[in-house]
Amino acid sequence: MDEEGWYEQGQRPEPRPSIPATRHALRLTFQFDGDNVELIDTERLEKLVPPMIGDPPDEGKHVGEWLQVRDGDDRPIFTRLLNDPLRTRVEVHDPEEGPHIVVGPPDRGTFDVLVPDLPDAAYAVLFASPAPGKGRGRGLRPAEPLGRFDLRGQGSDPGTAS
Amino acid sequence: MTTSDGYVGATTKIVDHGSDVDRWCLVVVGDGYQSTELAQYRADVQSFVTRLRSTPPFGELWCGINVFRIDVVSTESGADEPATCGDGGTGSGASPRTYFDTTFCSIGPGAVPISRLLAGNSTEAKAVAKARVPQVDQVVMLVNSSRYGGSGGPVATASTNAFEIAIHEMGHSAFGLADEYGGDGTGTTAGESPKPNVTRDVNRATNKWRDLILATTPMPSACGVTSGSSPTPCPGCTPPATPPPAGAVGTYEGGDYSNCGVYRPLPSCYMRDYGPFCPVCARVIRQTLTPFLPPETVTPPALSLDFGGVPEGLGGVGVTTYRAIVFEVVSCRQIAFRITSGPTGGFAAPFGTTVIADPASSITPINRVPVWIGYTSTTAGTTASGSVTIRSDELGQSWTISLTARTIPRPKSAVAMVLDHSGSMSEDAGDGTLKVQKLREAASTFIAAMLPGDGIGVVRFDDTAQRLMDITNVGPLNGGTGRTTALGHINGSALDPAGATSIGGGVLEGAATLNASAGYDVRAMVVLTDGVQNTPPMLADVTPSITANTFAVGLGLPANLNVAALSVLTQGHNGYLLITGAVTPDQRTRLTKYFLQILAGITNAAVVVDPSGQLPSGTVHRIPFDVTEADYGLDVFVLTPEPKWLECVLQAPDGTLIDAGVLAAEGTGEQAGQAGLSLYRLVLPAVPSKPDGSHQGRWYVLLRLRAGGKGRYTSEYSAARYGGAVPYDVVVHAYSSLELRGWLTQPEYAPGTSVSLTAQIMEYSRVLAEGAQVWADITDPAGSYLGANLTADTSGTFGGSFVATIPGVYRVRLRASGTTTARMPFTRELTLTAAVRVGVEPPDVRPDPWCDLVRCLVANPKVFEQFGADAEFVKCLERICRSSHSAAAAERHRV
Ligand SMILES: [Zn+2]
What we know:
The complex is a heterodimer.
Chain A: E1 24-33, E2 36-46, E3 65-71, E4 76-82, E5 89-94, E6 98-103, E7 108-116, E8 121-128, E9 144-150
Antiparallel strand pairs in A: 1-2, 1-7, 3-4, 3-8, 5-6, 8-9
Chain B: E1 6-15, E2 24-31, H1 38-53, E3 65-74, E4 106-108, E5 112-114, H2 122-132, E6 136-143, E7 150-151, E8 155-159, H3 163-173, E9 252-255, E10 258-264, H4 270-273, H5 279-289, E11 297-299, E12 304-311, E13 320-330, E14 335-341, E15 354-357, E16 366-376, E17 383-392, E18 397-408, E19 413-420, H6 435-449, E20 455-461, E21 465-473, H7 481-491, H8 503-515, E22 522-529, H9 539-542, E23 549-554, H10 563-571, E24 577-579, H11 590-602, E25 605-609, E26 612-616, E27 621-627, E28 631-639, E29 646-651, E30 657-658, H12 660-666, E31 669-674, E32 677-683, E33 697-705, E34 709-710, E35 713-714, H13 715-720, E36 725-736, E37 738-745, E38 753-763, E39 766-767, E40 772-779, E41 785-792, E42 798-804, E43 808-819, E44 825-836, H14 849-859, H15 861-866, H16 871-893
Parallel strand pairs in B: 2-3, 2-6, 6-8, 12-18, 19-20, 19-22, 22-23, 23-24
Antiparallel strand pairs in B: 1-3, 4-5, 7-8, 9-10, 11-13, 13-16, 14-15, 14-17, 17-18, 20-21, 25-36, 26-36, 27-33, 28-32, 28-36, 29-30, 29-33, 31-32, 34-35, 37-38, 38-39, 38-42, 40-41, 40-43, 41-42, 43-44
Helix pairs in contact in B: 6-7, 6-11, 14-16
The complex binds zinc ion.
Zinc ion (ZN) binds at residues 168, 172, 179, 271 of chain B.
């Protein structure tokens, strides 16, 4: 429809992101020990998933961590930026010094990522910059695939995948 | 110190904007709260939620968010605080056993303990959240400690005075934002970060937030200095000649843990120093949450508003009514509707010209926004038409609504009182006064309070029925001739008790009396009886021929009344049956109150309150009642056996005291009085020059005993007769566009019957359910209190029920309270009765002809004197007749 005259300047609502909203989601739970990452649980659930924001990061260029969902031809179809999933730093909120981080060596633990349950999804690929030496944190070199996980046949509720 | 140190209690959805599938779900868990501290926990969660909502841009996105609170209970209170921490920090040494085992001085990467790092078992916290709320997007853990601390990661954790830590950490985990503070470069991404709010790119043509940078903003916008003890300007950054103005988005050096080489959008941001989120971060949050927002909609109102016929007022003052132009708004931002022109044509905007739909005022995003328009009636036959234009600046839309109204005559009512004066009316009502005396009090009050222009007629019945008075205009409140004539009949010998009971005959004559009248819009019959019909015509035979609205009052116990027949008669004719039961001394005015409620039903008044009390001398009683904008007149009744000693004034919401003198001076009302009654009748606003202070709001009835006098002519002397305090009842009726309608039905009268209650609140002829509650205070025949709540269905009809087990009368005080659409508080009430008795409906007892003869002799003493009979002997025969009559009736009951 023609929106002219319906909104005052500056009052126009945010445009909806271009990724189509899906109400089917996958909650992928990973377990890690240093750079060793395993997909330990795939939960299918009915849920609207937060969209991708901004341009997806480039393999070989960007530094950091993200999870890519790829189709059967290995083309990326969704990317979720992650915030230090492998826990190489902690943030300390000090009322005197202000916030700062403390960086450490590789750790172990679990994390989960919510992605849309897209019909074409075949693989999840976890990107992370390689673990550096002691005390430096990740992030010195561009991220590279740390693990590749088959999403086909995962989950226990086939009725929601469509 | 594990999850065995407590348990997971209830989960509550404290912010509910719809399905969890479509909303962004925030789950809050607690740690270190004992079961006795749950109230504190709930308050802390509420504070956090309020803080989050008031942190832009979350408020405008609030409709997209659901919030859950999980009541996690710990065995002990607080969080672990090691006495000494490896980084030199100190703590209290406390080590409480808590569910998630949260501790200060948590171990950071590389096994380094950090004093301010407050963290618990985040894996377990996430598992609890997922188990309770599968659609969870973010978990926040609030820790019951007043020491500042928190942490990020999978669960945003904060102590109760460090909510900003949790919100900052959500910036990382939920929205993928980078830290915007600097540092020595440890942890800084070597190349371009994929995060949306930090960059190394100061080129205005390629920068990732370039669309927010004005052409006049220098790039870079500010340069930093190196970290360390002797800072120097960062190499590679050329400071701008003129710094940008405050708030200009640009590239300010320092971010992502490096003072140099990395830039952020504004000097300050929540991701740097807990200041407001910078426009770049706020946009990311918006983009993330916007898909979760329900669509913003405004359902426009109808483009015409018709007040219909508004009746002429009382005493020459117009009736003011309000109608709302209602916009239904589903939005999370404030949207204002303002009148930009009008209202014209004599209409008014009684509550100002701007109404704001404030999403903060509602837990759901749906907001009904009323723009109120007022109309005051003038003289019958007058019409009004005008228009009003309302604009929403936010939506950039205007609506012009046409307004119409007309003044109609006040609907006039004719009332036929059909009164039992059979012999049994000479019996004690239960409180030491005769039933006939009770009837005279009640009927007199009714007649005294009737509206000028309404008509009254009087019919009495015993074996037969006689019309004592045709329907006649009662005339003015004070000294109306119809009123005086009717009162003369009520209090004269025509109602002295004698004879048998032909209720059907009375009803037929009442109907005939009404049918003979002309010029009335409403016809109503009020039937009072104390016994079982024993002379034809019978109720069952006459009921089908009745057309008037019919109310009945049974004076006595259900076992001695034709409950079923009277119920059929009244419920089929827009009325109801009220049964007094035995009248106790503390309920001496019950019959009068029943009559007043019936009068209110006939004249479209609503019962606001109905309290009673005992007033000692030297004391002022203040009885509050709420008046709404929908009310346009008031009747305030004070019923007391000592009206001459009781002083009564009204206090308007602005404190103005109102008595008969004020009402006379303002021309807005008058006072009337007679034995046992003082009545104020006034229109609203009571003081036209103070429309805000003397209309809607909290009013009071102020009562005190008159001072002065001597000897037995003092209020103290009078009060002494009632144990030192004069009893009174206050009844407030409102002439109003807000009414409570109620119905009581019961399928049978045997013990164990289920009594159904139904109610509707009508505001300006529209069902009001939102913001209202309806309940019933029920007194059973044994005097015990029962309560029943009525719940609203989707149509706004309230329903409830209770089981009546004890023979006798259940008095049901149906009560409603809430706020009107214009957000004014109100109360309403209505008394209904249910009857229970053992056995079947009392049979229609046919009198013995011998007893008829005896009654005839008693009524005509001259006849038996001719036979030389002794008067005392005949009276004795009559008593025998009366008791054998009751015995026969009682015998049939046991069948
Ligand atoms: Zn941070």
